[in-house]
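Q: What residues go here?
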């Protein structure tokens, strides 16, 4: 379903690669956790799957397609088969829960009759069938994330990417979100989730891929968040501190004078600013083109 074939991504000349010699595959129907410290390469992997950025070397395949051979005008169609869920929900504040989900269908020209059927189905699936007319500020954080997941899944994508989807939620609410993602996975969608949520990873016991310095240092079936792997940063076996550079394995060292790609920098490894969902971007451009009927449902 997703394959990285000897992929290296360097954002700036002279900078340490965000990912390096990445050779890994996620099969159809898998649920995979990506774990690692900030700047380890997790979000860069997601950006390449969405064709938000291209590898410097190597090839990325999604659903058997070489992304380097997909022209720019076909990228929106690619992204319609990839759902994306963010830590900060990214809901449109002036639109109800129903309308936020509805728009993901409207922008691809889904017939109104189909929209009227699918949106209530999605609200029911995420347990919000009685809150379709609520605005985002009238919903709890967990409910907003459920709406965001429904919006990402309403087109029935074959892949769902989740970037820290439980990061802003309390542990109890996070469990519900993980159960929902698990249900989506059981319906056949490949789920790849980047997270720092120890509890989520330990409870789910799915495949765990740990990144350090742009490289995969652990790929474990039914894994836990922490590991005995000697090159693990998150388990405390490898210091996440430049003061301990001499202790790093040589393959993971950054040359003197170089800095790892920052997740906070303009060319860094974070999705928060640059990786905008295609449907959200379209909504901002065309929001005024949608009037509202008496029930608060957007009209085309």
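A:
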């Amino acid at each position: 379903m997703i394959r990285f074939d000897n992929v290296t991504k360097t954002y700036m000349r002279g900078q340490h690669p965000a990912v390096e010699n990445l050779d890994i595959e996620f099969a159809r129907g898998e649920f995979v956790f990506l774990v690692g410290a900030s700047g380890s390469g997790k979000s860069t992997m997601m950006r390449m799957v969405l064709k938000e950025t291209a590898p410097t070397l190597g090839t990325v395949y999604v659903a058997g397609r070489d992304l380097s051979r997909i022209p720019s005008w076909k990228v929106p169609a690619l992204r319609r088969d990839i759902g994306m869920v963010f830590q900060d929900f990214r809901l449109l504040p002036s639109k109800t829960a129903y309308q936020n989900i509805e728009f993901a269908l409207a922008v691809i020209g889904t017939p109104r009759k189909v929209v009227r059927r699918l949106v209530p189905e999605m609200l029911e699936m995420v347990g919000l069938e009685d809150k379709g007319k609520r605005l985002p500020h009238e919903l709890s954080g967990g409910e907003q994330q459920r709406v965001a997941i429904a919006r990402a899944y309403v087109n029935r994508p074959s892949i769902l990417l989740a970037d820290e989807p439980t990061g802003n939620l309390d542990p109890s609410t996070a469990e519900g979100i993980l159960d929902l993602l698990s249900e989506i996975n059981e319906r056949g969608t490949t789920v790849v989730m980047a997270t720092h949520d120890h509890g989520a990873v330990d409870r789910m016991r799915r495949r765990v891929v740990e990144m350090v310095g742009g490289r995969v240092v652990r790929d474990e079936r039914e894994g836990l968040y922490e590991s005995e792997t000697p090159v693990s940063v998150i388990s405390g076996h490898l210091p996440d501190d430049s003061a301990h550079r001499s202790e790093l394995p040589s393959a993971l060292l950054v040359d003197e004078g170089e800095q790892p790609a920052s997740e906070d920098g303009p060319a860094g490894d974070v999705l928060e600013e640059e990786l905008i969902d295609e449907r959200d971007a379209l909504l901002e451009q065309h929001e005024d083109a949608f009037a509202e009927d008496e029930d608060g449902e957007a009209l085309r």
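A: Context that may help when evaluating the design: Residues 116 and 242 are 55 Å apart (CA to CA). Helices lie at 42-49, 75-80, 97-106, 112-125, 141-153, 171-186, 198-204, 278-286.
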